[in-house]
Design goal:
Helix content: over 70%
Number of domains: 1
Radius of gyration: 20 Å
Strand content: under 5%
Distance between the termini: 31 Å
Number of strands: 0
CATH topology: Growth Hormone, Chain: A
Number of helices: 18
CATH architecture: Up-down Bundle
Shape: globular
Structural class: mainly alpha
Order of helices and strands: HHHHHHHHHHHHHHHHHH
Amino acid sequence: MCMSADIKVRFLDRTTPPHIITLILLAGISAMVMNMFLPSLPNMTEYFDTQYQLMQLSVALYLAVSAIMQTVIGPVSDNLGRRKVLMWGIGLFMLATLGCIFAPTAEIFLFFRMCQAIIAVAMVLSRAIIRDLYDQEQSASMIGYVTMGMAVVPMISPGLGGLLDEALGWKSVFWFFFLCGGLLLWLVYSDVGETARPSSKSLIGQFREYPELLRSPRFWGYSLAAAFCSGSFFAYLGGAPFVGTEVFGMSPAVLGFYFGAPAVGYFVGNFLSGRYATRFGVNRMVLWGSLANGIGTFSSLMIFVAGLGTPLSFFGMMTFVGLGNGMVIPNATAGMLSVRPHLAGTASGLGGAIMIGGGAALSALAGFLLTPETGAFPLLLIMCVTGICALLAIAAVYRRERRLRLA
């Protein structure tokens, strides 16, 4: 059921739909937890007296567990409701954060870092709540506006993380996570009512709905477009800290400043999604975003091939990756959630799992292949290949719709 235009939204009132500020913060905390601590990775490596490749797994393992969690969160929230699952998930995230802070070894830290992935509940259910309230085109627009506001978080969080690390040590970043989790838990309790339509199916019955989605070519087209386009960004998450530190010799604070470059493009891309999704439709927005992503990665690679790579060129071209993701993700998400509207939570979880699972693999691959001898080349090659695959995925959606029109 879609929300009527004349419904009033009151902040901190559970009897009205959640305020846009709440939805932005729900989506934003997932991005913050993913990238705010990345400038601290070299210092964390030294603290735990281990190798960078092991600490870099804190990105890949987090993404892998996040992908698994999202396959569960969607059906559970379709069955039990968005509000209850959100509150439990945020509470467990706060406990996992304490585990990261007090971990005595790198291995124990990585275990609790994986547990932190439960915060994916915020990202999955913020999208599902929007789809509970709006139709496909309005959902794309609304998700665009929400993620435009959310884009401020990854824009500033790496810089803030770098400053906290230099001033108070890497643990201060995780104490910040814990504080934000507490504030978000209170906000959900005060502002988020239940938006999911009551389900007559059991929890097992909800999981049995997965084949209905998996048989849909449209679901796969949108999911893979989002997965491959965001794959460029996740590879960047896994490899850019190494490139900034080892190739360009940046300090955590300087790296944090440059690291947020994709978020600038992401902000613009989400604004364009919010402004134009209803006018041009989700397919065109996904296509244009995939092109922007591909142009940015290919241009950066060519600059390095010419021997002209600098911090400004490397991180500057990443703004096009952010621009592409800002256009692709809201529109592809709205598309996949609209394939079967009664399975919005399940589709959000499964689509997110495909996207994040692929990101985990690409993040780990980037970290594994990068060495001082290779420079940034393996990372840029991975990003270029995923950009091409994103274009192929949305092209498949176009081909299918053209065949259906001609039939």
